[in-house]
């Protein structure tokens, strides 16, 4: 048997499961997500319980061909021919199985942990050592309690070096990861001071991380970071580096910038050695020093190490979704290409519903550790199972294996230039195109050709961060409480179908938009889940029904109009929602009107009331808690009355984002999550790590000018220079959503990390900032807001709220969605 094939009987024994085995199948693929199953053959599905019980997905996995399951409880319905291994804890079983797998191989393993830089250091160590080893490593940043087992499962008899990163957020987690990775060499990356929810003190957190090195004979770490932990370091030998302490094994004493490279000199074994790093930012420099130390520690010569470090290439774990030419969407993943990251990128392609047609542009894959034949056979099978409609292969190897690819439409080219010369022949229109290539193919040229050019102010949206926020709020809900995501106003300015796709894929229960048009846009982009429309206009009822959108009825007038409409069209049981005004005094039936509403409802079979809701006016504010209590009470009374006269139960909901945070007793059957998805919650302090900001707004400098004291800048000569200095003109103005209120020093932007206030009035398409203190030049990036410089701060500067800042960003600002 191949090294990662196991018979199901064997698995049962390893994980100590109960349950009867019907067929002694062979398994080789571990599955944890029913949405991502390509082929059920040889798959073993672990029904992990998150908020949604993994057991609900068993049927889906079964339909995809899976016949072997690890579960906590047997399924309610009979699934013929399926084996169910019953265990006390499904995650533990996954970990036990992979721990067993790891034990069978005697390869060298490097284990990496720290607060920042784990993935970069892992990928760089891979780049640096791939020439001499057959390396197995985590795909992307799969470093969690689930990600690590799935990564380690890839070890096979050909692997001779493992490089695995481990990430933790709670006490007790590292011990489990250590047992699965079992590293013999440890690497500790940067330890941040970030506030960690799961730990009482920083010391506790560091001690937990150090547990990864329990059995290491060698640990590479920054001397300075562990000064206070000398007695806690478990490894027998340490190789230390430092920029401050001479006693470190690698003492970096000089750092200079030479032609866009970072030049480092250090003391090592009594000699002076050097290296050149092709990056300038401090995080990259630190990560590169860690790699430098690691290579030296494991025996590479200083000369060889220097030679390899010089050729490091940036690691982009990002999959970017951009607007393409000819109504295409483009997923840009042009930095790396290996089998597992291809699989992940294809899943992302599959999440996109906005176009029917799905296209993949792929380059040859290097350093897979497999024979070409076997590799491209696997690649062809994967692409077929992911239902790619059109395939463009670039490179000699793909060209010579073209017959493997059973895809309706396919093209092959020897190199990138040939593809670029043939773009018209291939033709791209209304399709989603995934561009995935090894670094040397320079696929960014392909991406440039296919992505729509717009002006250079960009809003970036981090889909992982959004998922994190979604999961955070889900974790606050009682079991069974549904979640409606508010994607009105272009998803609070962050996009249309891109976010909705992500929410649909992650199985939120409902979406809500403000107007019928927004709902139609989502349907046209392939969103099939239920959508509630807050303000359904009478003139658009036809469209509303055609696109299966569910209106909110909030007044007798609208109720009457809609009833007449459905009666006229012989529609029965149309799903609608009722809104009760419990104190916002905006839309909704008044509590006093509920009785009359009941009378109307009793005689009516044309409508099916799906849900009843109300909206809190001040859920975030403690000083209004009494009022909020009152709203909740009124809501309870009204819904009880309505359910009684309807004779059936409906979904009841009243909480918005801050309500979820502060009023957990009022979750009823569903909550409506809005701005929290974007990482903002007035009831949670901005520095709380539970939420992550998802948007970055950035622009660039079009010109830099010298000015002298007394010069005036911009319209109306409002900006008067108090001293000699320099100003930069940047490509953002009030038409982009950078409001005039930010003018004259109120607004602040960031250039190369340094704060630069605005000078003079904000113009329509541009504005000026004071860059006297910054080394700024044309083309430099300018940050308006991001993770560090928060939207909340901008809002405070001009006396507004984050909602307004976000929704003001105009449509001409290009949105780029990325996924790490
Ligand atoms: C916008 C909106 C929400 C979401 O509010 P957040 O404060 O952004 O969470 C909830 N309910 C209704 C009716 C809304 O209009």
UniProtKB/TrEMBL annotation:
Organism this protein belongs to: Mucilaginibacter panaciglaebae
Pathway membership: Amino-acid biosynthesis; D-alanine biosynthesis; D-alanine from L-alanine: step 1/1
Residues with N6-(pyridoxal phosphate)lysine modification: 488
Transmembrane segments: none
Family: Belongs to the alanine racemase family.
NCBIfam families (alphabetical): alr, murF, PRK11930.1
Domain Alanine racemase C-terminal intervals: 694-818
Residues that coordinate or bind substrate: 586, 764
Cofactor: pyridoxal 5'-phosphate
UniProt keyword Nucleotide-binding present: yes
Enzyme class: isomerase
EC number(s) reported in the record: 5.1.1.1
Known function: Catalyzes the interconversion of L-alanine and D-alanine. May also act on other amino acids.
Pfam entry (one): Ala_racemase_C
Active site positions, chain numbering: 488, 715
Name used for this protein in its record: Alanine racemase
GO MF assignments: ligase activity
Catalytic activity reported: L-alanine = D-alanine
UniProt keywords, alphabetically: ATP-binding, Cell cycle, Cell division, Cell shape, Cell wall biogenesis/degradation, Cytoplasm, Isomerase, Ligase, Nucleotide-binding, Peptidoglycan synthesis, Pyridoxal phosphate
């Amino acid at each position: 048997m191949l090294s990662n094939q196991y018979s199901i009987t064997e698995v049962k024994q390893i994980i100590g499961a109960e349950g009867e085995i019907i067929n002694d199948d062979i398994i080789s693929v571990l599955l944890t997500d029913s949405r991502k199953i390509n082929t059920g053959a040889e798959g073993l599905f672990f029904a992990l319980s998150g908020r949604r019980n993994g057991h609900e997905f068993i049927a889906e996995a079964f339909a995809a061909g899976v016949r072997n399951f690890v579960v906590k409880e047997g399924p309610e319905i009979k699934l013929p021919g399926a084996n169910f291994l019953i265990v006390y804890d499904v995650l533990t079983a996954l970990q036990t199985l992979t721990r067993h797998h790891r034990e069978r191989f005697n390869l060298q393993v490097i284990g990496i942990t720290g607060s920042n830089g784990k993935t970069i250091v892992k990928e760089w160590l891979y780049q640096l050592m791939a020439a001499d080893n057959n390396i197995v490593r985590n795909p992307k940043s799969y470093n969690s309690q689930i990600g690590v087992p799935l990564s380690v499962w890839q070890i096979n008899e050909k692997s001779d070096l493992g490089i695995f990163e481990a990430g933790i957020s709670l006490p007790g987690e590292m011990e489990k990861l250590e047992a699965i990775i079992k590293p013999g060499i440890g690497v500790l990356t940067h330890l941040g001071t970030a506030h960690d929810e799961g730990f009482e003190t920083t010391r506790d957190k560091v001690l937990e991380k150090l547990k990864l090195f329990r059995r290491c004979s060698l640990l590479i770490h920054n001397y300075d970071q562990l000064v206070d932990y000398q007695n806690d370091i478990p490894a027998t030998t340490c190789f230390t580096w430092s920029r401050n302490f001479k006693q470190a094994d690698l003492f970096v004493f000089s750092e200079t910038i030479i032609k866009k490279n970072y030049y480092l000199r250090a003391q090592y074994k009594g000699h002076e050695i050097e290296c050149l790093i092709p990056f300038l930012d401090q995080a990259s420099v630190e990560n590169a020093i860690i790699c430098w130390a690691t290579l030296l520690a494991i025996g590479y010569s200083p000369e060889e190490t220097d030679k390899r470090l010089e050729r490091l290439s940036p690691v982009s774990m990002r999959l970017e979704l951009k607007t393409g030419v000819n109504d295409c969407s483009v997923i840009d993943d042009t930095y790396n290409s290996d089998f597992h990251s291809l699989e992940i990128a294809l899943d992302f392609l599959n999440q996109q519903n906005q176009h029917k047609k799905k296209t993949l542009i792929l380059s040859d894959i290097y350093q897979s550790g497999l024979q070409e034949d076997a590799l491209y056979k696997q690649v062809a099978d994967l692409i077929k199972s992911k239902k790619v409609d059109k395939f463009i292969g670039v490179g000699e190897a793909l060209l010579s294996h073209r017959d493997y690819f059973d895809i309706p439409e396919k093209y092959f080219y020897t190199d990138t230039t040939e593809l670029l010369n043939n773009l018209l022949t291939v033709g791209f229109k209304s399709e989603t195109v995934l561009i995935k290539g090894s670094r040397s193919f320079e696929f960014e040229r392909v991406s440039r050709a296919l992505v729509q050019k717009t002006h250079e102010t960009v809003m970036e949206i981090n889909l992982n961060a959004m998922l994190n926020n979604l999961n955070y709020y889900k974790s606050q809900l009682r079991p069974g409480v549904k979640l409606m995501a508010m994607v009105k106003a272009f998803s609070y300015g962050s996009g249309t179908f891109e976010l909705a796709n992500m929410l649909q894929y992650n199985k939120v229960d409902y979406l809500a938009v403000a107007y019928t048009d927004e709902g139609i846009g989502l349907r046209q982009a392939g969103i099939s889940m239920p959508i509630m429309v807050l303000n359904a206009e009478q003139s658009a009822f036809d469209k509303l029904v055609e696109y299966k959108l569910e209106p909110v009825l909030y007044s007798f007038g609208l109720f009457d109009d809609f009833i007449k409409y459905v009666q006229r069209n012989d529609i029965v049981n149309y799903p609608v929602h009722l809104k009760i005004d419990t104190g916002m005094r905006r839309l909704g039936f008044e509590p006093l009107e509920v009785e009359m509403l009941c009378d109307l409802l009793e005689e009516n079979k044309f409508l099916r009331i799906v849900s009843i809701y109300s909206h809190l006016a001040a859920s975030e504010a403690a000083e209004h808690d009494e009022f909020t209590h009152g709203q909740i009470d009124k809501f309870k009374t009204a819904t009880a009355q309505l359910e009684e006269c309807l004779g059936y139960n409906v979904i009841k909901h009243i909480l918005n984002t801050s309500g979820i945070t502060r009023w957990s007793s009022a979750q009823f059957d569903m909550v409506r999550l809005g701005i929290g998805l974007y990482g903002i919650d007035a009831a949670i302090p901005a520095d709380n790590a539970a939420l992550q900001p998802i948007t970055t707004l950035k622009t660039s400098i079009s010109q830099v000018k010298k000015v002298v004291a007394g010069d005036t800048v911009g319209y109306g000569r409002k900006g008067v220079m108090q001293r000699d200095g320099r100003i930069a003109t940047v490509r953002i103005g009030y038409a982009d959503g950078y409001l005039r209120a930010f003018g004259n020093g109120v607004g602040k932007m960031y250039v190369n990390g340094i704060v630069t206030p605005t000078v003079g009035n904000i113009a329509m398409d541009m504005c000026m900032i004071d860059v006297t203190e910054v080394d700024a030049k044309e083309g430099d990036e300018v940050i308006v807001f991001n993770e560090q410089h928060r939207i909340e701060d901008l809002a405070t500067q001009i006396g507004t709220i984050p909602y307004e800042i976000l929704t003001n960003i105009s449509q001409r600002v290009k949105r780029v969605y990325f996924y790490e």
